[in-house]
Design brief:
This protein is of the alpha+beta class and about 130 residues long. It has a single domain, classed as 2-Layer Sandwich (NE0471 N-terminal domain-like). The chain is about 25% helix and about 25% strand. It has helices at about 35-40, 45, 90-100, 100-115, and strands spanning about 10-15, 20, 30, 65-70, 75-80, 85-90. The protein has a 3-stranded antiparallel sheet. Strands 4-5-6 form a 3-stranded antiparallel sheet. Strand 1 and strand 2 form a beta hairpin. It is globular.
């Protein structure tokens, strides 16, 4: 693991539901709890191989309730929807920071294609063209 991928600071902002990561050199990134939840590196989300990913829906209000360091290489994030099985390696967190905009747009496009939504209390109807 390259030391450039390890943050020098990790701070959870509970009210705004943002995880802030600070890296050497002063770079700072904020990742929403929703973004981190829908891109969890767990088998529940990724499946067990390419093409087996499970689209996460209704996670707009999800929050992180605990952050647990795992050795010197990862964080375990515990979400208030009882999801806690993904280990976020330093490299994966850095990748999420770097590719946040593209990944978010991809997620929104996949939701739209599936006729699903971010809000668990709102039903989305995709009536097609």
């Amino acid at each position: 693991m390259s030391e450039q991928h390890k943050p020098i600071g990790v701070q959870l902002h509970s009210r705004s539901r943002q995880l802030e990561l600070e890296y050497a050199g002063g770079a700072r990134y904020s990742l929403s709890c929703e973004f981190l939840r829908v891109y969890s590196p767990s088998a529940e989300v990724l499946g067990h191989g390419s093409g087996q990913e499970v689209l996460q829906t209704g996670k707009i209000n999800v929050a992180i309730t605990a952050i647990k360091p795992v050795g010197n290489y990862a964080l375990q994030l515990v979400f208030d929807d009882d999801h806690d099985s993904g280990l976020y390696s330093w490299r994966y967190l850095y990748e999420l920071c770097q590719d946040q905009d593209a990944k978010w747009q991809d997620y929104l496009a996949r939701l739209e294609k599936a006729g699903a939504g971010r809000d668990p209390d709102v039903q989305v109807l995709n009536l097609g063209a």
